[in-house]
Design brief:
Strand 3 and strand 4 form a beta hairpin. The protein is an alpha+beta fold. The protein has one domain: Aldehyde Oxidoreductase, domain 3, CATH 3.90.1170. The chain is 32% helix and 38% strand. The strands form 2 sheets. Strands 3, 4, 6, 8 and 9 form a 5-stranded antiparallel β-sheet that branches. The longest helix has 19 residues.
Length: 141
């Protein structure tokens, strides 16, 4: 199954093009993407930047489990699950999910499953920076 899954956890900029090239297949009519970007506000406070940190070995393992589960559960062809670490500015991309499937419904469902499960189970933590301080947003898992 490894040739159907592309996991990446990196301090480098993420590439939607790289994910698209990985999932693209002539037998797949449905491609679904989720691209998370750093927004400039949260709870009516202005965000200056975000910082992501991770427990890499466990994060990669959990990301792979999510991808394998999505492939089996939704019958999709390929899935790329990429997450950035380090400091990211407004507009930069901390997460990309890319899915290919013969049909759109499975691609949409698998894409949503992957991002929702990643946010709940993968040991990646986000710190939001404001003009007047910072706060860890998700102190789980």
């Amino acid at each position: 199954m490894d040739n159907r899954i592309f996991i990446k956890l990196t301090e480098e900029s993420l590439s939607l093009d790289e994910c698209h090239k990985f999932v693209q297949d002539d037998g797949c009519g449905g491609l679904a993407f989720f691209v998370g970007t750093v927004r400039n506000n949260t709870k009516e406070k202005e965000v200056v930047r975000l910082e992501f940190s991770a427990y890499d070995p466990m994060a990669i393992k959990e990301m792979r489990i999510i991808a394998e589960d999505a492939v089996k559960k939704f019958g999709i062809h390929k899935l790329a699950l990429h997450h950035a670490k380090g400091v990211l500015s407004i507009g930069e991309v901390p997460v990309i999910v890319a899915v290919s499937s013969p049909h759109r419904e499975a691609a949409f469902k698998a894409c949503q499953y992957a991002i929702d499960t990643l946010k709940k189970t993968v040991p990646i933590w986000k710190k939001e920076y404001f003009e007047d301080g910072e706060v860890w947003v998700n102190a789980h898992p």
